[in-house]
Amino acid sequence: MNKPMNPQPDATQKWRHLVEAAIFESNPNDLSRRIQDAQEALMDQIEDSFLTASQSERQSMINAMNSLRELRRLVQTPGSQIESDIVN
Fold it and tell me: How is the chain split into domains, by residue range?
């Protein structure tokens, strides 16, 4: 039995996985790249499905993007608590 092709769940799982990987990354050498990868995958998903996504899916994408932006800001702030937590 063949399952119908549905790229949407895979794309959703991909950006969610990448966002989680960025949030939980503990290696400071990998963190910026993980954030970038997650933002790119999320932007692709937003471009592909924002108008057809449910309200809760759209809100999840917006929340994830805001979280990634805040994480990037914290990482780039010299002397921030997150910077010292990652280094130590």
Answer: 33-45+55-75
Q: Which residues contact 39 (CB under 8 A, 6 or more apart)?
A: 65, 68
Predicted structure pTM score: 0.77
**The pair of three-digit structure tokens given for residue 29, joined into one six-digit string:** 């050498």
Please give the Cα distance from 53 to 61 (Å, whole number).
10
The pLDDT score that the predictor gives to residue 3 is 46
What is the DSSP code (8-state) at residue 88?
-
Q: Tokens 């910026």 correspond to what residue?
A: 32
Q: How far is CA 10 from CA 7, 34, 70, in A?
A: 5, 18, 26
